[in-house]
Design brief:
globular, 5-stranded mixed sheet, amp nucleosidase, domain 1, 494 residues, 31% helix, 5-stranded mixed beta barrel
């Protein structure tokens, strides 16, 4: 008779209970100890189980957690959009990969302690670490698919649980932990682990390489330009950039080094121009379509970047536009539908002043145009995002009427998705597009139509994105992370 895994005794590592800390660095050190002990236990037991067969017990380790309790309604500096809780209560979050998130955790825990004058408690949580996530990054050993082993993996180890692998917190669905306490951070440990695994799958670079400033594009040319910029930065000892990483984790530290290219590129090739403290720039070629845009931002969001921008191609909707003109989005018409279940279409996606001014300043810096002259090559207005690349082949009366009523000046398939997910995940967002065709005015995207002006502008476009990120990097963190992105019931952590 097969013994149910629920009847098996559970073996877990022996760990001390919660400890209180008034020092953020010491608190994160303790998180690291607890996490590494749990992962080491699961890896050891998994290797033994694979080699020796079905054991007589279940093996379980738990994520560490941060727990914070306050009984005061004392007002905190309201200019800050993060780093404090709004009312008395107990708040908790489970933590994974404290090594990867060390600087972020020290910063967020430090603000909490400083703003409230109270300690945080660090200890094991009640949430098991799934064996799949524990084995991630362990080298040669991976978790086989169900049916490969002579026993069911679920009978011995915990597997991912959708109960804590979701977006209920960021979506504002009133996510409660098991004991009724409120969330302290926007993502649970399992949700973070899931996305870290997805990043490696879709983008073929380890999460450690991602920088705090993310550029998204839908055109391979920008990747080529980004590598050119990266090599120029590495050749300049005063640039502050330290290395350039491509798919497959190929990394160069000198301008003349060859960059190994995998035989098969991933679905969303990703490149990282690295800087100390993850202050560099990551470029993701998401390809075409709102589904790709959602997938990329769903997973990058757990890294808590400081900003992401879309720099891609679009259809110009005004006859006065030229191929190569820039479009700075200040509103979005969402006809992409991929986020309808997570963020209602009636939700406004506001422009963020800090991002808008950085993009406009970057255009001025690169093109050497300013003021009224800048209007020759750039328009500001509504960008519409759709989910049908060949919308021109259908009856145009409906779409064109909506585009006209919305005052849209450009149409693409990714920007509104990226902006809306930035809004949803509290990641500052922006869009600067380059007009590549004008379908309503007889200029379709066909070979041979690119003018010299267009080619020059496309080359400048990537430089503008890089320059905008440099301007954003120079801003104080509390200025970038706008209160416009925070809800009524907000987590203390960014």
């Amino acid at each position: 008779m097969t013994v149910s895994h629920r009847q098996l005794p559970v073996q877990a590592p022996e760990l001390a209970g919660p400890e209180r800390f008034n020092d953020a660095t010491a608190a994160v050190d303790r998180l690291t100890e607890l996490y590494e002990a749990g992962v080491a236990f699961l890896r050891e037991k998994f290797a033994a189980t694979v080699n020796e067969g079905m054991p007589a017990c279940r093996f379980r380790a738990y994520y560490p957690e941060i727990r914070f309790t306050t009984a005061s309604y004392a007002q905190i500096d309201s200019r800050l959009s993060f780093g404090h809780v709004a009312e008395p209560g107990t708040y908790v979050t489970t933590i994974t990969r404290p090594d990867l998130f060390r600087n972020y955790l020290i910063q967020q825990v430090g603000l909490l302690i400083e703003n409230h004058g109270l300690p945080v408690a660090i200890g094991p949580s009640a949430t098991p670490i799934p064996v799949h996530f524990a084995m991630g990054g362990s080298g040669a050993m991976t978790v086989p698919q169900e049916g490969v082993l002579e026993f069911s993996l679920r009978d011995v180890f915990d597997v991912p649980d959708l109960g804590t692998t979701n977006d209920d917190i960021v979506n504002g669905y009133g996510f409660p932990y098991g004991d009724g306490v409120a969330p302290l951070a926007p993502f649970t440990a399992q949700r973070v682990d899931y996305s870290l695994a997805r990043l490696s799958h879709y983008m073929a670079t380890d999460p450690e390489h991602f920088q705090n400033h993310i550029l998204f594009t839908n055109y391979q040319f920008y990747v080529e330009e980004f590598e050119t910029v990266a090599r120029a930065m590495l050749a300049d000892p005063d640039s502050g950039y330290t290395s350039f990483v491509g798919p497959g984790n190929s990394e160069i530290t000198a301008a003349d080094q060859p960059l190994d290219v995998p035989a098969k590129l991933p679905q969303m090739p990703t490149y990282h121009l690295k800087r100390k403290g993850s202050a560099g720039i990551t470029l993701v070629n998401i390809g075409v379509g709102p589904s790709n845009a959602k997938t990329a931002t769903d997973h990058i969001a757990v890294l808590r970047p400081h900003a992401w921008l879309m720099v891609g191609h679009c259809a110009g909707l005004r006859n006065s536009q030229r191929l190569g003109d820039f479009v700075l989005a200040h509103a979005y018409l969402r006809e992409d539908h991929v986020l309808d279940d997570d963020l209602p279409v009636w939700t406004p996606i506001p422009p963020l002043a800090e991002i808008q001014t950085s993009l406009e300043q970057a255009v001025e810096d690169v093109t050497k145009l300013e003021g009224y002259e800048l209007k020759r090559i750039m328009r500001t207005g509504t960008v519409a995002t759709i989910d049908n690349r060949n919308w021109e082949l259908r009856d145009q009366s409906g779409p064109v009427q909506r585009l006209s009523q919305s005052r849209a000046i450009a149409l693409d398939m990714e920007s509104a998705t990226i902006a809306a997910n930035g809004f949803r995940f509290r990641v500052p967002y922006g869009t600067l597009l380059c007009v590549s065709d004008k379908p309503l005015h007889g200029e379709l995207k066909l070979p041979g139509m690119a003018s010299e002006f267009y080619r020059t502008q496309v080359a400048n476009h990537l430089l503008i994105g890089v320059r905008a990120m440099e301007l954003i990097r120079e801003m104080p963190l509390e200025r970038i992370h706008s209160r416009k992105l925070r809800s009524f019931e907000e987590t203390a952590f960014l």
